[in-house]
Each structure stands twice: as structure tokens, then as C-alpha cells.
């Protein structure tokens, strides 16, 4: 008789366990469904590519071998006054290219050779262009007056220009005020381009420069 009375209690207990197990399984399936939906949406979004950046040195002045670079016995000039005309181009890779801009009033453009600064421009003289269309071009002129260049570097530049092998470094940095905060960015992105005069479009890349 006692055993017969305990049977209904055991049946109710099994029913509760079965109900909880079903709830846990349903919850797990719902979570997996939500996770699968999120993964599907992420995978369905096309990747965002950075636009291509390039530069062309369209013209120079003040770098003539006969009158500027090679020192003659009758010449006492030891400085250069170079002028560089550059055309930066920003090209979208596809319709999903990331929005990107170069130039602007807070940027500084510098042109150097062999580590020696030859010309620069900053502030409002460096316009801004963004990857809003298929291709945008930024024309800017950088120059300097009475730049001191070591004699060995002048001779090297003259020889490489004569062979068409002189490579100039054009960099564009964001000219930010000094950071006085407790937390300052350890580095800043710098647009670095290496180009030869009249060579056409030369690729540019971003590098991290540590302060």
C-alpha cells in the first residue's frame, strides 16, 4: 500500500525534470539561432577596403645639375631653393571603400632626399580631398628657400637625377598640438610615398611614427 502511494509523487517529479530539460534545450536552441543570425549578418556585410593612395611628382625647380647642384670653382652657393609640384590621388577600390581623406589645414607635407628635408608645406596650403568619388586628385606645391644640403648628398642627387634614379620621400603628417594629457597616443599615422620625377603614379602607404 505504501509503495502504491509513492508512485504518483515519482511521476510528478519526473514530469518536472522533463519540463526543465525541455526549457533548457529550447533556450540553448534559441541562443544558437540568434548567434547564427548574427554570424550570418556579419558574413553578409562586404569587407571595407581602404582606398588606394598614390602620388606623382609632376614637376620640379631649383634642382638643375648645371646651375643648382654641381658646385663650380666660381660658385660659392651652398644652399638649394627647390620647388616640388606633386599630385596626390585617392582612388576607391569599390563601392564599399572606407571613407578616407588626406590633406587639410592640420596636415604638413614634407619632401626629402636621403634624410635631408628639401621642401615642405603646411596649414591652409595643403588642401583636403576625400574618397567621395571614384578618384580624386590633390595638387600641391612644396618649396623651401636656402636649404642647406651636404656636398656629398648634392653630388649623389646630381648623379642620380642624371640617371633618372633619384627617389624622393613625400610624407604627410597630422600636425597636432603637443599632448599634455596623462594618456597620449603612442604613435600617429604618417602617409609615406616614394617617387621619382616624371615616373607616374607611385603607391603610398601609412606608417606609424612614434613620438
Features:
alpha+beta, 211 residues, two-stranded antiparallel ribbon, 12 strands, 2 domains
Describe this structure in a few short sentences:
The protein has helices at 2-44, 65-69, 151-163; strands at residues 52-61, 79-80, 83-91, 101-103, 107-113, 116-122, 128-130, 135-143, 147-148, 168-174, 187-195, 202-210. The chain is α+β, with helices and mostly antiparallel strands and 211 residues long.
What does this structure look like?
- This protein has 3 helices and 12 strands.
- The radius of gyration is 32 Å and the shape is elongated.
- It folds into 2 domains: 1-45; 52-176 and 185-210.
- 29% of the residues lie in helices and 36% in strands.
Summarize the helix and strand pattern as letters.
HEHEEEEEEEEHEEE
- Provide the residue-averaged pLDDT: 78
Query: So what's the overall shape?
Result: elongated
- Total beta strand runs: 12
Largest sheet: 8 strands, antiparallel
Strand content: 35-45%
Q: How many structural domains does the protein architecture include? A: 2
What structural category characterises the helix and strand content? alpha+beta
Q: Give start-end ranges of low-pLDDT stretches.
A: none
Amino acid at each position: 500500500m505504501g509503495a502504491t502511494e509513492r508512485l504518483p509523487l515519482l511521476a510528478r517529479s519526473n514530469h518536472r525534470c522533463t519540463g526543465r530539460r525541455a526549457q533548457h534545450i529550447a533556450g540553448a536552441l534559441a541562443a544558437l539561432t540568434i548567434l547564427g543570425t548574427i554570424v550570418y549578418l556579419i558574413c553578409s556585410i562586404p569587407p571595407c577596403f581602404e582606398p588606394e593612395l598614390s602620388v606623382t611628382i609632376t614637376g620640379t625647380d631649383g634642382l638643375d645639375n648645371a646651375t643648382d647642384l654641381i658646385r663650380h670653382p666660381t660658385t660659392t652657393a651652398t644652399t638649394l631653393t627647390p620647388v616640388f609640384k606633386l599630385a596626390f590621388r585617392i582612388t576607391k577600390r569599390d563601392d564599399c571603400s572606407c571613407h578616407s581623406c588626406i590633406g587639410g589645414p592640420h596636415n604638413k607635407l614634407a619632401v626629402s632626399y636621403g634624410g635631408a628635408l628639401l621642401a615642405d608645406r603646411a596649414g591652409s596650403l595643403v588642401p583636403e580631398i576625400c574618397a567621395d568619388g571614384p578618384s580624386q586628385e590633390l595638387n600641391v606645391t612644396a618649396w623651401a628657400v636656402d636649404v642647406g644640403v651636404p656636398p656629398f648628398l648634392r653630388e649623389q642627387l646630381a648623379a642620380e637625377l642624371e640617371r633618372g634614379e633619384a627617389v624622393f620621400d613625400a610624407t604627410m603628417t597630422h600636425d597636432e598640438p603637443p599632448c599634455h594629457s596623462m594618456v597620449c597616443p603612442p604613435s600617429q599615422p604618417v602617409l609615406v610615398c616614394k617617387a621619382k620625377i616624371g615616373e607616374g603614379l607611385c603607391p603610398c602607404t601609412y606608417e606609424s611614427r612614434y613620438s
